[in-house]
Structure prediction request, 353 residues.
Amino acid sequence: MNAINFVYLAAILFSIGSAAVLLRRNAIVAFMGVELMLNAANLALVAFSRLHGQLDGQIMAFFVMVVAAAEVVVGLAIIIAVFRARQTISLDEPAELKG
Amino acid sequence: MVSPVLFWVVALLTVIPSLALLFARKAVHIAMSIVCVMVGLAAAYVGLGAPFLGVVQIVVYTGAVMMLFLFVLMLVGVDQREDLKETLRGQRWIALFTAGGLAILLISVIGRVSISPQEEQVGNPEDIALVLFDRYVLVMEVLGALLITAAVGALVMTHTPRLLPRKTQAEVHAARVLAGADPVNKPMPGVYARHNALDVPALDPDGNPIEHSVSRVLEVREQMSDGDEFRARLESTANPEDHQNPQAEAEGEK
Prediction:
């Protein structure tokens, strides 16, 4: 079985993640959707690394993991700060900038 | 070549739990199914000749990131309800339509790509290290700086300066007594009533039942026994030997 099938799988996972980001109003669940999208990109990178017979894709996936870890730390800190300020983590609540 | 069994196992192990993101109600269930997705992806990496990334995936994602998510879920309260009213009208259908369109677009593009398969290369830690610290050494340094910045950023974001001076234990106690709290312990239920079940209120020195000595839970469930009954029995007792077993006696009276 060709490794290109894993790229199809990555595309499906990416779409599910993007649907979760667009659909859910709980900030933590939407954030998990972002994580799923990053992981789908990783899977595509590793599959391409396999297809091309070079290690660069795996290195890129490694970098994406590091950036994702940093992003999770800052993102969850923001969610906690917002929760402290207004006792909710719904994404619809903060609307002060609405004209 | 990748084994088809591995592919289908990974596909089922990732796509089905990730659908929980769209349909599950409770955030903890979603987090646990995402953990399942991460483990499936780790298996895929090992099967694709990247064992190092597979291990890193398990350590970083299932071990650190998703546990961090669970910590934050516990911190903000697992019972945070998601409000079901739509702020934007028809957002659900627009979102599903957009995501479906994205999937169709990506799959159709991937279907038109033709890549001639190359010789296989396994991503051992040694080979990864050779590439990582040779061609990508500058990126590596920058990522180190990024991680430190992220850690400091999280500390700054969650830090709250103390607005009031810290109260000592003596001050807390004085404030509670001032607010009318009882300075001594509450009496234990049952002990003074010649009956050591928790559903019987204690008797004060005058023999009156102390209602609040019984747990409030039993009170709400209406499982509290009447203290007066036991008090009357205490006062009418001619021979204490007759009342060694008040529970059986109560059953008999019924």
